[in-house]
Write a structure and sequence with these properties.
Largest sheet: none
Order of helices and strands: HH
Helix content: over 70%
Low-confidence stretches: none
Structural class: mainly alpha
Mean pLDDT: 88
Strand content: under 5%
Radius of gyration: 15 Å
Number of helices: 2
Number of strands: 0
Shape: elongated
């Protein structure tokens, strides 16, 4: 059960972070013709942001449960 909740939290955070990162116009920052590299960058940024968000949420949940 814990595993399913953790995966659901990570996926939810991933969707939220991907939505947030899409608000930035990367075309002004990246060279023309580098669309694949820009997409990979967006995925990596979203995954790392989602991991940090999920870790924070889980830490806050554990702190509230035990204290």
């Amino acid at each position: 059960m814990k595993f399913i909740l953790r995966v659901a939290l990570y996926l939810t955070c991933y969707v939220i972070s991907m939505y947030g990162w899409m608000a930035i116009d990367f075309s002004k920052l990246i060279h023309k013709g580098r669309t694949l590299q820009t997409q990979v960058l967006l995925i990596v940024l979203s995954m790392s942001t989602a991991y940090l968000m999920a870790q924070l949420i889980m830490a806050l949940m554990i702190r509230n449960v035990f204290y």
